[in-house]
Design goal:
The chain is an all-alpha fold. The protein contains 17 helices and 2 strands.
């Protein structure tokens, strides 16, 4: 995909060319809202808030202070009721019944903004909305009212924990998120013993899903996307899979399934219709985080090394969320993300969006030029250009990496 040119830069050039600034500057158009503040150069229609949240959370995790305008972009994507949609091209327009909000983008935004700090009002409204759309079984579906699934329930648990809530006390119909997860854990017989399903099929049958299992382990442990190596609990050490599960036992059983799935090749696979199964880099990274969160760092070693050797091309093609997943895997195992198989994941992530702030001081381009904000920032930008030249205006812009 070709790198998109920044509409904000073109708009700034137009303003500079004007002889006299107008008395008032209109709000940015929908087309102007996409380019400069958002990480990644692919269409954000389905994953804008998700990838932005992961990018900002990963930067914070490695001690990088994100660009101010990128944080503002994420905050301004929130609807009045607290929910987030994947992408609102014009955040000045109110959300309505046609705005496709979802639990996953909302929960990811909560995890990122809570980590960054200073956004309690935003995250508080988001948590209130998440609670309002909890299902009667205690879980969450991708969209409000949708059947509960392991991935959505787990990412919401991570958001609740990040926001200081106790997930076991967030109930609907007398059921907590952990109750919902336990209904999605497979029994302890057959090759798929201990796995989580994504959702039951139409007949109510559960099918093992490695992606859901990695998410389910984190959810059952009450953890979000960013974890440190955990200690395997005495209750779960050395125990075989058990059908009568507590959340802790479900996590241990899920780890057992993941370890078995990773043992042969060191990576998970993704079935591709009409061809041989292909390596699944993202789910492998998530599995590493899940193993490490449970204290199974030894089991995480092989897939981690496989990722170090093989994930560079995948990450470059998939952009900020992919780099964030690898950074989370590195962090969870105590691995240096700036030398991940010879790749500086932090540098590569930073290159997919606005340059981060440096040493606690906001870059001039980040503070003074933002496609998402109203007229006052445009005026400041014009003044800067007049004072120090057009070259300085563009100094903070970094070309987005081509996949």
């Amino acid at each position: 995909m070709n790198v998109r040119r920044s509409a904000a830069v073109l708009a700034a050039v137009a303003v500079i060319g004007a002889a006299t600034p107008a008395a008032a500057t209109p709000a940015p158009s929908a087309s102007e809202a996409f380019p400069s503040a958002l990480y990644g150069d692919k269409d954000p229609e389905f994953d804008g808030v998700w990838r932005q949240s992961l990018a900002l959370l990963a930067q914070h995790t490695v001690g990088v202070k994100p660009a101010a305008r990128s944080v503002r972009w994420l905050v301004r994507q929130q609807c009045a009721d607290g929910s987030f949609a994947p992408y609102r091209p014009d955040p000045t327009a109110a959300c309505d019944a046609k705005t496709m909000v979802d639990t996953n983008q909302t929960a990811a935004a909560v995890q990122a903004l809570t980590a960054l700090g200073g956004h309690d009002t935003v995250t508080g409204k988001a948590v209130t909305w998440l609670k309002s759309v909890q299902n009667e079984d205690g879980g969450w579906g991708y969209t409000p009212g949708g059947a509960s699934d392991t991935n959505s329930t787990s990412v919401v648990i991570g958001a609740l924990t990040a926001a200081g809530e106790k997930p076991e006390q967030v109930e609907k119909g007398g059921k907590s998120p952990y109750d919902a997860l336990l209904t999605l854990a497979l029994a302890c017989d057959g090759d798929d013993a201990g796995a989580f399903a994504f959702q039951p099929d139409k007949k109510g049958k559960l099918a093992a899903n490695a992606d859901a299992t990695a998410a389910g382990v984190l959810g059952a442990l009450g953890k979000g996307m960013v974890v440190k190596p955990g200690e395997k609990s005495e209750a779960a050490k050395g125990q075989a899979c058990e059908d009568k599960k507590s959340p802790e036992q479900a996590a241990a059983d899920g780890v057992g399934y993941l370890a078995k799935a990773l043992a042969k090749d060191g990576h998970l696979t993704s079935p591709t219709p009409g061809s041989d199964p292909q390596p699944d880099y993202g789910n492998t990274a998530d599995a590493v985080v899940a193993l490490a969160a449970h204290g199974d760092t030894g089991q995480a070693e092989k897939p981690l090394r496989w990722l170090e050797k093989n994930s560079a091309t995948w990450a470059a093609q998939n952009g900020p969320a992919a780099y964030a997943q690898l950074i989370f895997a590195a962090h969870a195992t105590g691995t240096n993300p700036r030398d991940f198989g010879g790749t500086d994941l932090v540098k590569q992530l930073n290159a997919t969006g606005p340059a981060p702030q440096t040493a606690g001081k906001t870059r001039a381009a980040d503070e003074k030029s933002d496609s998402d904000v109203f007229g006052v920032w445009w005026y400041v930008g014009v003044c800067l250009v007049a004072g120090v030249g057009i070259g300085f205006l563009f100094s903070g812009r970094r070309k987005k990496q081509q996949p």
